[in-house]
């Protein structure tokens, strides 16, 4: 699995000048640092792995390294959202996601996409997504954020409220939720035999996870409107027990496209 993108302070001066020209002065603040309209709460400050604020030059280089690989027409909106963020661990996470987005959209020629990234709607969505990314410890979830942002740039037609719903769901999701959704997306291998249940199929596919944990995760996914079933321990036909994709809701199927896209990128990079 690819490692996190680190902060490369040897980037060219061209990238540095590009960012400075788009962001203006970047003033690092203490742990109450903010991206526009966002301040750190005492609860945020208690989270581990916080680093001391950078100097003016270091902060600018952090932003430069995060956006220097982004195509020019996306770099301006990105840098305007990032302006003022100075914590290097958070910037490293954001840099990883932006590099992933870059790899997905760098060859995009759509004028509609280029116009869309200049809108308030996209920049507000990007700001919200990157604030979540900054605190996201799961590398796998950060890849899903990148898939979501790239998809939004490529096809920006979905309603704004639906995009916010997806970001809320993604923020709430745990790594084990993603693992469960992935096995539910699998094609069934064997549909022969006697009666079965959703729970049995999940337990077989999620090796090492106990039945109580499986039931709890499925219930949480149900609360998020991602899956739906009368009960995972009800006896049903082998075919119904194996075809778990049928228990993913229409919203869940839209949401899991980003999980699938993130997984495809991982496989391509392997």
Question: Can you tell me the overall shape?
Answer: elongated
What is the helix fraction of residues, given as a range? 55-70%
- Please give the alpha-carbon distance between the first and last residues: 7 Å
Beta strand %: under 5%
Offer a concise description of the structure.
This protein is mainly α and 270 residues long. The chain has helices at 13-23, 42-45, 56-67, 72-82, 88-105, 111-116, 120-135, 139-154, 160-172, 175-184, 198-205, 211-223, 238-242, 250-269.
Structure description:
With 270 residues, this protein is mostly helical. It folds into 2 domains: 13-172, no CATH class; 176-269. Helices cover 60% and strands 0% of the residues. Helix 5 (88-105) packs across helix 8 (139-154) and helix 7 runs antiparallel to helix 8. It is elongated. 31% of the residues are buried.
What key phrases describe this protein's structure?
single chain; 270 residues; mainly alpha; 0% strand; disordered N terminus
What layout of secondary structure does this protein have?
Layout: H1 13-23, H2 42-45, H3 56-67, H4 72-82, H5 88-105, H6 111-116, H7 120-135, H8 139-154, H9 160-172, H10 175-184, H11 198-205, H12 211-223, H13 238-242, H14 250-269
């Amino acid at each position: 699995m690819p490692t996190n993108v680190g902060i490369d302070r040897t980037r060219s001066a061209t990238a540095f000048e590009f960012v400075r020209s788009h962001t203006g002065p970047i003033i690092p603040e203490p742990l109450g640092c903010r991206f526009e309209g966002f301040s750190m709460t005492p609860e945020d400050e208690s989270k581990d792995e916080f680093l001391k604020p950078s100097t003016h030059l270091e902060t600018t280089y952090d932003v430069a390294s995060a956006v220097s690989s982004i195509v020019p027409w996306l770099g301006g909106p990105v840098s305007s959202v990032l302006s003022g963020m100075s914590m290097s661990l958070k910037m490293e996470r954001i840099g990883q996601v932006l590099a992933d987005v870059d790899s997905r959209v760098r060859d995009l020629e759509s004028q509609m996409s280029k116009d869309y990234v200049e809108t308030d709607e996209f920049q507000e969505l990007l700001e919200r997504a990157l604030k979540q990314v900054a605190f996201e410890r799961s590398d796998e979830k950060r890849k899903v954020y990148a898939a979501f942002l790239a998809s939004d740039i490529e096809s920006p037609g979905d309603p704004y409220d639906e995009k916010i719903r997806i970001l809320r769901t993604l923020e709430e999701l745990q790594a084990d939720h993603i693992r469960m959704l992935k096995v539910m997306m699998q094609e069934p291998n064997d549909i022969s035999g006697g009666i079965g249940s959703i729970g049995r199929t999940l337990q077989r596919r999620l090796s090492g996870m106990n039945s109580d944990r499986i039931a709890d995760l499925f219930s949480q996914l149900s609360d998020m409107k991602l899956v739906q079933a009368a009960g995972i321990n009800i006896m049903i036909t082998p075919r119904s027990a194996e075809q778990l994709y049928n228990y993913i809701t229409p919203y869940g199927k839209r949401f899991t496209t980003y999980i699938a896209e993130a997984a495809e990128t991982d496989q391509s990079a392997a």
